[in-house]
């Protein structure tokens, strides 16, 4: 039975195949996701439920794509 490489090993392997611009874009994405997660937690703590839903998909023109999100917010009555 084959085992999957660990997350850290897979990330290092993927990063070694990236350009410096790609690595910088991924670091920016990771930082922005951290801030988004923090904002979601603050909204939940303030009393609303938050669901992130894919609203569109952005295509880069050479086969790459990314999901774009929109929040669905539900307040208590």
Task: Offer a concise description of the structure.
With 77 residues, the protein is of the alpha+beta class. It has helices at residues 7-16, 20-45, and strands at 48-59, 65-75. It starts with 6 loop residues before the first helix and ends with a strand.
What do these coordinates show?
The protein contains 2 helices and 2 strands; from the N terminus they run ααββ. It has 77 residues and is α+β, with helices and mostly antiparallel strands. It has one domain (7-75). The chain has a two-stranded antiparallel ribbon with strand order 1-2. Strand 1 and strand 2 form a beta hairpin. The longest helix has 26 residues, at 20-45. It is extended, with a radius of gyration of 17 Å. The protein starts with 6 loop residues before the first helix and ends with a strand. Residues 1-20 are annotated as: Disordered. Residues 1-13 have a biased composition (Basic and acidic residues).
- DSSP summary, beta strand count: 2
Low-pLDDT residue intervals, each spanning 5 or more residues = none
Number of helices: 2
Roughly how many Å is the radius of gyration?
17 Å
Structural class: alpha+beta
The coarse overall form would be: extended
**How many domains in all?**
1
Q: Give me the side-by-side strand order of the main sheet.
A: 1-2
SS strand fraction: 25-35%
Mean pLDDT: 90
Distance between the termini: 52 Å
Strand and helix order: HHEE
- Main sheet: strands, sense, barrel: 2 strands, antiparallel
Q: Helical residue percent?
A: 40-55%
Please write out the topology:
Blueprint: H1 7-16, H2 20-45, E1 48-59, E2 65-75
Antiparallel strand pairs: 1-2
Biased composition (Basic and acidic residues): 1-13
Region (Disordered): 1-20
